[in-house]
Amino acid sequence: MNKLLQLGVLPLVLDPVVAGSKLTKVLINDGVGLNIIFASTLKKMGLDITDLLTPMDKRFYSILLDKAAIPLGQVTLLVMFSTKENYKTEYIKFEVDDFMSSYHAIFGRPSLTKFMAILHYMYLL
Asked: Would residue 56 count as lying in a domain?
């Protein structure tokens, strides 16, 4: 069997609407205690990050190999997960980082808690 078809191998990637823009590559990681959005994502969304950022002096680890990540600051944005039958919106606080990623954002435990979401890896939803 192809390794990619085995259960639990594929990452859970969803497409929420963040500050009015649909992001198509958001990694859901319930093992991370923070939410991350990348400066490049905010720029592509047309948001001026200098007006949005709240400075912070905390570092976090385990995102970049053997290095501490120093966020540019924090920003709170309106996030919506939706289907035609069901939707929910919440304000989510993100750490803004200026490093390269194949994802637009990473949602960790804080956003899952806010949305009262339970992941189902078998169905990747």
From this structure: yes
| Rounded distance between C-alpha atoms, residue 100 and residue 88, angstroms | 29
Q: What is the pLDDT along the chain (125 residues), one digit of tens a residue?
A: 455 455 556 678 889 999 999 999 999 888 788 899 999 999 999 998 777 788 877 766 655 556 667 788 999 999 998 777 788 899 999 999 888 889 999 999 999 999 988 887 676 66
Query: Based on the structure, what is the number of domains in the chain?
Result: 1
33 located within any domain:
yes
Cα(60)–Cα(48) distance, rounded to whole angstroms?
24
For residue 6, being part of any structural domain is answered with no
